[in-house]
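Q: GNAT superfamily N-acetyltransferase, please. Structure only.
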Amino acid sequence: MDGVGSVNSSVGGEFEFDDDPGRVDLDALWEVLSTQVYWGKWRSRDHVRRQVASAWRVVGVYESASGRMVGFARAVSDGVALAYLADVYVLPGLRGKGLGTRLVEAMVEDGPGADFRWMLHTANAHGLYGKFGFAPPDPSYLERPRREGPGTGTP
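A: Structure for GNAT superfamily N-acetyltransferase:
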C-alpha cells in the first residue's frame, strides 16, 4: 500500500484508526463478514484474505486498550480518480459512538482519495454516507451485477 497515505488517529483515546493492512485481524473480519452482515455471507475465509491483500486501502478501528479490531473499511481503486468503498462495519455494541462516521471520514476524506469519485452499494446507513457527499447515481450509471450460482463463488 505504498503511496496511498496513512491514517493513525484516535477517538477519545478509546479507539484507534489505522490503515496498516498488517494490523487487520483477518479471522475477526471473516467472522463478521460471514455471520453478521447481509453483503458478505457468501465469502470464504480465503476470499476475505485475498480482498484485503489486494485492496487499495484498508482502515481498521481498534480498541486502544486491547487492540481488538471493532470496525473496518476497504477500498478498491485505480489510484488516480475512482474508488469503491466496501465492507464498512462497526460491531453492533459499539455503534452510536461516532466510530462509523470517523471510519468513513478516515477512508474518504483523510486519505489520498479525498478528491476521487467514490462509489458504494449499500441498503442502509444512507444518512451516514450522505454526510460525505454520497448520493444516488444519475441516470448515466450502468452496472453489470455479479453472476450467481454454482461455480461463481456466490449462492
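A: Brief note, in case it's useful. Confidence is low (pLDDT under 50) at residues 1-6.
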